[in-house]
Design brief:
Helix content: 55-70%
Number of domains: 2
CATH topology of the largest domain: Heat Shock Protein 90
CATH superfamily of the largest domain: Histidine kinase-like ATPase, C-terminal domain
CATH class of the largest domain: Alpha Beta
Strand content: 5-15%
Pfam families: HATPase_c, HisKA_3
Enzyme class: transferase
Protein name: histidine kinase
GO molecular function: ATP binding; phosphorelay sensor kinase activity; protein dimerization activity
Main location: membrane
Shape: elongated
Oligomer: single chain
Distance between the termini: 38 Å
């Protein structure tokens, strides 16, 4: 039954019941209206309105659920679907809405894959230029300063050596940025070694304590999934240093029945004061790309816990 006929039928039922009561009930209306007659008429009107409202509430409840779902749906949290209540116009509308979400999620996953692939390509290009162009130029400057310092008199030699140290520190920073943009350790030595190097570098430059628990007997993962795990760990550590006001971060990579689970947990301010910014949205994009499940919850010590669970090779996403 279509929505029109459902609403029409509900109203016809209420009005028919009211007409039947007027026809067969021993009630008359005097002129002027008596108090008891007015009470009976107003009471009947109230009962009719309440019954009509209740019946319309039941009939339009699926549309209200659909409206709430439309306002809260997020393509970065796939799988949100409404149950289809039988058949008819409302059921067809909800079924069409669910099909639309299927298409939008598929298109979002495809576009995210293209965007992240382009982003990684641009990162590799920038890292290569930093290493080859800027790094080599700064190395040449460093060697020139060393030769000049060796031939310079004592007052000038100290200044040149200070310039050497500044240049050497800048060169180290450029190399560190290049490693962050293009994790060569991940390509050469694998995920566990890359996460170990990442956590050591993070602890050195932020002063935070990083505790690691990285399982070595991981199931087979493709290169794309390993890169997703690495980038989510990188973003989780960065958020802990920038926003959480943490003193300690726990980084864990372990084997689970679903595949592989990565967790980054800090002892900072917690999720109650953190807003979902570009970093978390980026992690959700990467999780969507690899068919993984991303959970951001409260940690054991009141901080934030980011957990990414990815299926291993051969398991359905």
């Amino acid at each position: 039954m279509s929505l029109f006929w459902r609403i029409f039928g509900l109203n016809a039922l209420v009005l028919g019941a009211a007409t039947a009561l007027l026809l067969w009930a021993p009630v008359t209306v005097s002129v002027p209206v008596l108090l008891t007659e007015a009470v009976i008429l107003v009471g009947g009107l109230a009962v009719m309105l309440v019954a009509n409202a209740a019946l319309l509430r039941v009939g339009l409840a699926p549309l209200e659920r659909l409206t709430r779902e439309m306002t809260t749906v997020d393509l970065l949290r796939p799988g949100q679907r409404l149950p289809v209540p039988g058949s008819g116009g409302v059921a067809e509308l909800i079924r069409t809405f669910n099909d639309m979400l299927d298409r939008l999620e598929a298109e979002r996953a495809t576009s995210s894959a293209r965007a992240l692939s382009a982003q990684e390509s641009e990162r590799r290009r920038v890292a290569q230029e930093l290493h080859d162009e800027v790094g080599q130029s700064m190395t040449a400057v460093l060697l020139g300063l060393k030769r000049a310092a060796d031939r310079a008199p004592e007052p000038l030699r100290a200044e040149l050596q200070q310039a050497q140290e500044i240049t050497r520190s800048s060169l180290d920073e450029v190399r560190r940025l290049a490693r962050r943009l293009r994790p060569g350790v991940l390509e050469d030595l694998g995920l566990v070694s890359a996460l170990t190097s990442l956590s050591d570098d993070f602890a050195t430059h932020t002063g935070l304590t990083v505790r690691r628990r990285l399982d070595a007997d991981l199931p087979a993962l493709d290169r794309q999934t390993e890169l997703v795990l690495y980038r989510v760990a990188q973003e989780g550590l960065t958020n802990a240093a920038r926003h959480a006001e943490a003193t300690r971060v726990d980084l864990a990579l372990r084997r689970v029945p679903e595949g592989v689970a990565l967790s980054v947990e800090d002892d900072g301010r917690g999720v109650g004061v953190a807003r979902e910014g570009a970093g978390i949205r980026g992690m959700r994009e990467r999780a969507l790309l690899s068919g993984a499940a991303l959970d951001i919850t409260r940690g054991r010590d009141g901080g934030t816990r980011v957990t990414l669970t990815v299926p291993s090779a051969g398991r359905p996403a």
